[in-house]
Amino acid sequence: MGQHNPSIRDEALALLRGGSTNRAVAELLNVPRGTIGWWLHEDRKRRGIQYVQPTDCPICTGRDFDRSAYAYLLGLYLGDGHIISKQKQHHLSIFCGEVHPGLVDEAEWAILQVMPTPRTGRRHRNGCVEVKSFTKHWTCLFPQHGPGRKHDRLIALEPWQQDIVDAHPWDFIRGLIHSDGCRNMNWTTRTVGGVKKRYEYPRYWFTNVSDDIRRLYTDTLDKLGIEWTHCTRAGKEYNISVARRASVALMDAHVGPKY
Ligand SMILES: [Zn+2]
After folding, report:
1. How far is CA 50 from the centre of its chain?
2. How many angstroms does the Cα of residue 57 sit away from the middle of ligand 1?
């Protein structure tokens, strides 16, 4: 590091304090990026400044963010997302089926729209893809994080989250269906003129064991004018069906099958 003129170092530090990035200063002054990082580290140590990892967390910085992407991600998180927040391990994980590569890409896209800076990664396991984003700030964006499983605790949206869901209800519904729902074919029989006929019809099916999460889903469907019914299967009332033709048509226009 000794080969650089102290005036170059001072100039670099002045630029960095002015908000320039290490990369920009390195290019401007033609100094390796590692050297810039070292100067910054030494300068902070000399001035007794503790390094705080910069964040683009919308909650901590107050910056604006993509609310429709957030509404979608909130649906994914409530359906099949988890936050790990331990001493040295912080990340958001969204689980997608390997058979739906489009959803894997869309989950990562939504994560990056809300917080572009943290590192993301994917892990394939047991037919699932875990899309991860590494930062402790996901607990700021999803204050529903807490000990235990989601269906064992109260899941209520904060007022600011409800405002976002109210402004972007279809994104929220899409996220919930993409994680815990599907579009499939159901059938029924009807007797017409003494002849039993089999009819097939599409429906949207949503399954979640949390009463609170099912209610968030059905409350949002109500606001959108979508008709739904509660279905009990094998003694469990965890399923919500949308099967009326007009409602399915609206769901097709805004959600569609998984891909
Ligand atoms: Zn934060």
Report:
1. 31
2. 5
Residue range 66-118, pLDDT digits in tens: 999 999 999 999 999 999 988 889 999 999 999 999 999 999 999 999 999 99
User: Which of 126-138 are b and which e, b meaning 16 or more Cβ less than 10 Å from the residue's Cβ?
Assistant: eeebbbbbebbbb
Q: What is the pTM of this model?
A: 0.80
Q: How far is the CA of 87 from the centre of ligand 1 (A)?
A: 16
Most confident residue range from 21-30, 52-61, 192-201, 238-247: 238-247
Q: How far is the CA of 136 from the centre of ligand 1 (A)?
A: 7
Q: What is the CA radius of gyration of the chain?
A: 25
Residue 186 C-alpha to ligand 1 middle, in angstroms? 44
- Find, among 255, 158, 259, 256, the residue nearest to 216 by Cα: 158
- Alpha helix positions (H), the chain: 6-17, 22-29, 33-47, 58-61, 67-80, 101-114, 138-141, 159-167, 169-180, 211-224, 245-254
Locus of tokens 């949503």: 206
Distance 93 CA to ligand 1 centre (A): 17
Mean pLDDT of the chain: 92
Predicted pLDDT of residue 1: 47
